[in-house]
Amino acid sequence: MRAWRRFRRHTPAMVGLAVLLVFALLAIVAPWVSPHDPVRQDLINSLQTPSGEYWFGTDHLGRDILTRILFGTRISLLIGVVAVALGMAIGIPLGVVAGYYRGWPDMVISRITDILFAFPAILLALALVAILGVGLQNVIVAVGVSMVPIFIRIVRGSVLSIREETYVEAARAVGAGPLRILWRHVLANAWAPIIVQATVGVGITILLAAGIGFLGLGVQAPTPEWGSMLGEGRRYIFSHAHMTTFPGIAIFLAVLAFNLLGDGLRDALDPRLRVMEGG
Known about the structure:
By secondary structure, this protein is mostly helical. About 75% of the residues lie in helices and about 0% in strands. The chain contains twelve helices and no strands. Helix 3 runs parallel beside helix 6 and helix 9 runs antiparallel to helix 11.
């Protein structure tokens, strides 16, 4: 409850949460509130500027940009959430093993993590897409794998600190097994940084997926996705800037909202604040 009170007092985080709730609501109700079909072409009305009928204008194929952004919200949020979940599913166990058991498991996992960190996330994701092929599922896998080393390093660092705590030593002294200690004591006290990183990571994965889509290697046409919409509009950026402006704003707001939410969660879950407030 104290964490929630601290979070509510964090105004930027509440703004970010509100923006994300709006995006989530739009993703749910998109089929019922969208003014047009997101994939139907209408060449007669192609490249229309924003107007009363087409609030965000139309693209080079006459498709309503507002409608495509609304439906693209579903795809972008899906990629962000599932990719982060995949990164956590792989990274957390490896980080726990490396931090708790040390020795050769730590050496092997840490060296693999260093190799993955040697590649910028976008290059690693692009390499995986080149191997797996284009498409929604492969983009999710590629972006999710690029998040794995981040979670390994965060979890490993937390576990290295927690495993030396007095309550962990006491659990060992009374005969608790490694699995029980890891689950009941180590992981239970390592979730705060994981949650914060997962929140910020969703914004990162949305940005990565948009970059892949911009290059034409992500979600394929005619499926609406923010990054691919930017890619389609780049040839018209000087003559019909609305094609790139509005998808770009959507990406900016989503990533900013997740970053603000992550900052708020970091401050709310900071154990030093709990100590300062008397537990």
